[in-house]
Amino acid sequence: MKEIEFSTYDVDEKGFIKNEKPRNLRDVYHDVSVELQQAGLLGDMDYFSMSSSLHCDDPVRLFPLRWKWIACYAVTGGSEGHYVHVDVTHRGADLESEKTETIFIGKTFSGMDNALEIAGALSKIMGA
User: Fold this and answer.
1) Residue 118 in contact with residue 44, Cβ under 8 Å?
2) Smallest Cα–Cα separation from 117: which of 105, 128, 108, 104?
3) How crowded is the C-beta side of 6, counted as CA atoms within 13 Å?
4) Segment 28-66, tens digit of pLDDT
5) Nearest CA to 41 among 127, 114, 124?
6) Residue 81 per-residue DSSP state
7) β strands within the chain, DSSP E
8) How far apart are the first and last CA of the chain?
9) What's the rounded mean pLDDT across residues 100-105?
């Protein structure tokens, strides 16, 4: 599994990053899905999608450039199955406050061990 890039950038002659720009969240989601598929884990899931709270119909939603933490974890569902969450804590629009959002969510009926395996893979893919 390879770690996903969340931004594009140039490197100057001294090796410093310049012109950093966040990637489109849909493109990041696509790359993460491909990595899960190649690891043989996407087929174990009932679904894996962008969080509905992110207004997925927004084609220009960008991955947070100033993120602080990424958390990938499994939880038992309220009625059935297990969910896998990917949360990002990042600076708010005012650049001072912090905001945590669930960006991706998946569900599996293959048990907690499988959900934990997927969460572990996502941690590697997301560089959490």
Assistant:
1) yes
2) 108
3) 17
4) 999 999 999 999 999 889 999 998 776 555 667 888 888
5) 114
6) S
7) 7-11, 17-22, 47-50, 67-76, 82-91, 98-108
8) 13
9) 92
Give the C-alpha distances (Å, rounded to integers) separating 56 from 25, 59, 64, 117.
Answer: 9, 7, 15, 26
Q: Whole-angstrom Cα distance, residue 125 to residue 1?
A: 6
Residue-wise pLDDT for 82-99, tens only, equals 999 999 999 876 767 888
Q: Which of 91, 88, 92 is nearest to 101 (CA)?
A: 88
Residue from 117, 7, 28 nearest 72 by CA:
117
Structure tokens, 55:
């207004």
Say which amino acid occupies 37: Q
Q: How far is CA 86 from CA 9, 19, 23, 44, 83, in A?
A: 24, 27, 17, 17, 10
* Spatial contact of 128 and 1, defined as CB atoms under 8 Å apart: no
Shortest CA distance to 71 belongs to which of 34, 11, 126, 1? 126
